[in-house]
Amino acid sequence: MVSSSMTLITGSMTIPTLITTGSPVTGTRNDNSSLTIGSYSPGTFSRTRTGHWSISVGNGTILGIADTFQRIGLKFTTPVVKDNQHTLDITSTLSWQRVLTN
To answer: Which of 1, 40, 61, 73 could bridge to 15 as Cys pair (CB 3.0-4.6 Å)?
Structure first.
């Protein structure tokens, strides 16, 4: 199994223009409380994952999210505020295509 996590970024946030190794985003990290990876259905060429943050995790002004499996960082146009009265779930879908050439 591939190790992966989704991380909420609070505080300052920097996304490099080229991601080659390690974590793609710098900032204050708040790893997910749990990560659910959907099963793969043959022929769909996609897979979903849902990160869950409980009421005690990731509180504050969230500037974006880092995904270590997909090696991406997403910066929100409008920051999201999470407090200790709410949970947060973020679902992402990774999809791909296969190109056959002769």
So the answer is: 73
Domain total of the chain:
1
pLDDT band of 47, cuts 50, 70, 90? confident
**C-beta of residue 65 within 8 angstroms of C-beta of residue 31:** no
Within a domain: 17: yes
φ, ψ dihedrals at 33, nearest 5°: -70, -35
Residue ranges making up the domain that contains 24: 6-94
Instruction: State pTM to two decimals.
Output: 0.70
> Higher model confidence: residue 37 or residue 67?
37
How many other CB atoms are there within 10 angstroms of residue 45's CB atom? 12
